[in-house]
Design brief:
Aminopeptidase, alpha+beta, binds coenzyme A, eight-stranded mixed β-sheet, about 190 residues, 8 strands
Length: about 190
């Protein structure tokens, strides 16, 4: 665990890993994000939202996420940009509640299987624990969403249990879904 002389406030606007840059969205990213992930029907089976059918939907959503950054509301979304070619691959977001951070994430399906999301999530966990206020990083996924569970397992998050009828995943089912709660605790 690195040692810091002063508290680092989470979440920062930008984070880097070996291959990826996590950064605030800009309105000008809307078209590239639409092409790479927001219009991708493969990714929304276990998400709360449906694939966008127009760039305007992505632009409107990005405006909301930009406002959230500017207003310092609890919910922050990063875009995941591949460093070597600046291609947008997907997104990871977090919501801060007191000492807790909840994360959610999605990648365009052509970027699956390359270990990008574990790399991004690992960096978000590290950054969260650099802030002395943060004690717990948690994430929920549909009980069927094995790919997402694997991401959490790979970064050392532990399965804590099942929340019955917790998730609203309308692309999978009209009725609320059982979800798995994973978490990593400071110092574990
Ligand atoms: C979940 C997700 C982010 C995984 O990201 P990723 O960068 O592909 O993660 P990894 O490369 O580590 O792959 C994770 C697991 O997915 C599986 N997987 C990856 N690519 C796959 C593919 N093309 N087909 C089938 N399974 C695949 C593998 O089992 C892999 O685990 P393994 O490395 O132990 O074999 C990505 O699948 C995604 O965006 N899914 C849709 C959105 C979503 O469900 N988000 C989570 C909401 S809680």
């Amino acid at each position: 665990m690195p040692c810091y002389t002063s508290p680092v406030e989470f979440p920062p606007e930008e984070l880097e890993t070996a291959r990826l840059r996590l950064r605030r969205p800009r309105i000008e990213d809307s078209e590239a994000a639409f092409d790479s992930y927001t219009s991708d029907e493969n990714i929304t089976r276990y998400l709360t939202w449906s694939a966008h059918t127009t760039v305007a939907q992505t632009r409107e959503y990005f405006q909301q996420t930009i406002d959230a950054w500017d207003l310092r509301m609890g919910h922050r979304v990063w875009l995941i940009e591949r460093k070597h070619d600046r291609v947008l691959t997907g997104t990871i977001g977090c919501t801060v509640h007191f000492h807790r951070v909840e994360v959610g994430f999605a990648l365009g399906s052509r970027f699956w299987g390359l270990g990008y999301m574990p790399e991004a999530l690992q960096r978000v966990c590290e950054a969260a624990f650099e802030d002395p206020r943060i004690y717990r990083v948690q994430a929920l996924c549909d009980e069927e969403n094995r790919r997402s569970s694997r991401v959490m397992e790979k970064v050392g998050m532990e399965l804590e249990g099942t929340l019955k009828g917790y998730g609203s995943h309308p692309n999978r089912s009209d009725t609320p879904r059982d979800c798995l709660m994973y978490a990593r605790i400071r110092g574990d």
